[in-house]
Amino acid sequence: MAVASMHLGVWSWSRQSPELQTECQNGKEFCDLSNFERGMVVSARRAGLSISQSAQLLGFSHTAISRVYKEWCENGKTSSMWQSCGRKCLVDARGQRRMGRLIQADKRVTLTEITTRYNRGMQQSICEATTRTTLRWMGYNSRRPHRVPLISTTNRKKRLQFAQAHQNWTVEVWKNVAWSDESRFLLRHSDGRVRIWRKQNENMDPSCLVTTVQAGGGGVMVWGMFSWHTLGPLVPIGHRLNATADLSIVSDHVHPFMTTMYPSSDGYFQQDNAPCHKARIISNWFLEHDNEFTVLKWPPQSPDLKPIEHLWDVVERELRALDVHPTNLHQLQDAILSIWANISKE
Any idea where the Transposase Tc1-like domain is (predicted)? Predict the structure, then answer.
């Protein structure tokens, strides 16, 4: 005979006899049948069909046909009695709804707090283990939240307005956008995913340590741009990007790129809302050249919308994959420029 175990009111088979395993392979077993299917079995047998004929017609196992009909003959019932066996579940459907409301009210509540709040006003208390099991049965799992930028209500509205204004742009129109951004690459990066194998007394062994340096040992800031058609220039930035340095980049690199790639003046240049990009001298320069290309109005706090972020990720991964890592800022800059030049256009 099969031995059954109960988990929150639902039976699952933990062991089966060889005969029952064979029957389960041939068709639905006794415990798997719904009340409607049990009624079909009784109707087939009462119509004069044999056990084999009923099993072949309905697709159930011979054991299921025999047991259902026998139960109906002896007790006059076709409903399953399995759900009434075993210990009653401590958290019924009403309790699950109560527990679900507790989580919806506060997603950051701990398991202990859920159990405590659930037990308030309840005649029968439950333990944390029961709470954990119930939550898993309901589909809840404890997970670390994804990190996203904090966006104000005003900026949310501006992002929505940008999406609505450009929702009808076709792929052909987006191909005319040149994307730009700045990024900083550190000479030494800290990878929190590194793990080591050590014994209890080896925590300070040199082979089990990861060295750190202040500010990542320095880094290189670069400005780059690209479009659907090709990669644009990658420009190293000496110290920080201010309005003067940005004006030099716009006039020496953006202007030639835009006039070459979009000679029909149908190109769009994208840049974020960094203070240096909003300086008056930069705005005046773009106004003087508005007949050659258009500056795309960009919503604030929207780095997730810029495809150039994927290129920075490619450069970062290629830097980490180098066989010989840069040891100074000059080598790091040369490596970044080399990786950028060799990025596939696909």
Answer: 97-168
How many angstroms separate the CA atoms of 162 and 156, rounded? 10
Tokens 């990025």 sit on residue: 343
Residue the block writes with tokens 């930028």: 149
pTM above 0.85, yes or no: no
Query: Are 15 and 3 in contact, with CB atoms under 8 Å apart?
Result: yes
Identify the CA nearest to 68 among candidates 54, 57, 56, 88: 54
Q: Which of 219, 191, 179, 217 is nearest to 336 (CA)?
A: 219
Band (pLDDT 50/70/90 cuts) for residue 193 is: low
3-state helix/strand/coil string of 297-333: CCCCCCHHHCCHHHHHHHHHHHHHCCCCCCCCHHHHH
Fold of 3-84: Arc Repressor Mutant, subunit A (1.10.10)
Q: What is the residue whose two structure tokens read 């550190």?
A: 186
Fold of 167-341: Nucleotidyltransferase; domain 5 (3.30.420)
CA angle 282, 284, 285 (to 5 degrees): 65
Reported as a single tens digit per residue, the pLDDT across 224-259 is 999 999 999 999 998 778 899 999 999 999 999 999
β-pairing, 294-296 with 268-270?
parallel
What is the tens place of the pLDDT at every residue in 106-134? 888 999 999 999 999 888 899 999 999 99
Token pair recorded at residue 243: 């309005």
